[in-house]
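It would be a great kindness if you could assist me with a short task in structural biology. The full record is reproduced below for your convenience:
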Amino acid sequence: MIYFDNAATSYPKPPEVFEAMTKFMLEHGGNPGRSGHRLATSAEAMIVEARNAVSKFFGLKDPSRCVFTMNCTDGLNIVIKGVLKPGDHAITSVLEHNSINRPLQKAADDGTIALTRVGMNPKGAWNVEDVLAAVTPKTRLVALTHCSNVLGVVCPVEELAFKLREKHPHVRLLVDAAQTAGLVPLDMDLAGIDFLAFPGHKALFAPTGTGALLIHPRIDAKELHAWREGGTGGDSASPHQPVEFPHFLEGGTPNTMGIAGMLAGIRFLQREGGGLGRERLILNRLIEGLRGDERFKIYGSPVAGDRSGVLSFTIKDRDNAEVATILDQAFEICVRPGLHCAPYTHQALGTFPTGTIRLSPGYFNTEAEADRVLEALKEIAS
């Protein structure tokens, strides 16, 4: 089987991820912070180690502001629903996943906030100038993807963060790094990003049900309200959620086994150096293999160096879902067709409602597999 659906979730995972999860459950499977016995304290020690590792990996100086979540959607919702208040204005783009689209659109439709959705440039990224031009005195939050999960083009979040902080210090920036975390280097403190949300189960090689929200030290807890309230393992006497990070936003027992897997995934990346170079090599092979063939239409920048592991295309006179089914059943190739939870992107591309076919190679794919994918696609197109 050839798996080219890593933008949905990475597969396979490094063996050490499974080993770390199994070892944790066998030897340290207590509830972290909920007791003083050895299993609870060893579980808490792993959580602390993971929090430090994630923070260091993304340039967050205060590990207590690394909040573990169940996925990227969880982190994005924590910020969107925790920061915006009635009368606020928010800015997003047509490139967003529904994890940003839906909570913002719901608040706008309810009349709670005003919402501006900026467009994209021919490459497939939002423009810094368009975002800055949309800022008003009531703008409270800018929520944008670092990289579209449809087009795969990396957007200039560092430049935007610097200019927002310089020109509009009252505005908070939330970055969705679902498609770049573990692939595109990003130093949160250096870039000046207020909130960074990402999943563990994609390029960080953790299992599903994992993620994190990183909160810059300049953000006061008073700017947010708790996404959920519950047990934190400490301060049990208080009638309210403690306002100290990370417990303020981590009510309930965490996914300890999954976090152990995330820690192992990050250690793997640190040792191996990440997979973006390999992914871009494979993307370039795919792009060159389809370029010039009038049966295929590629969306977004034709330069692999602009991308982060995603290539979307359509085949003339072929149904996207049918192509994906044929690839799966006849060629044992896994891809994703459709709208990819990003309807505004496809409306802007003119591919709504059928969407595109998405190829997303990962760390463990090879150029030989890319050649087999190209052969299969051209056979289907014929």
Summary: The chain has a mean pLDDT of 94. The chain has twelve helices and 13 strands.
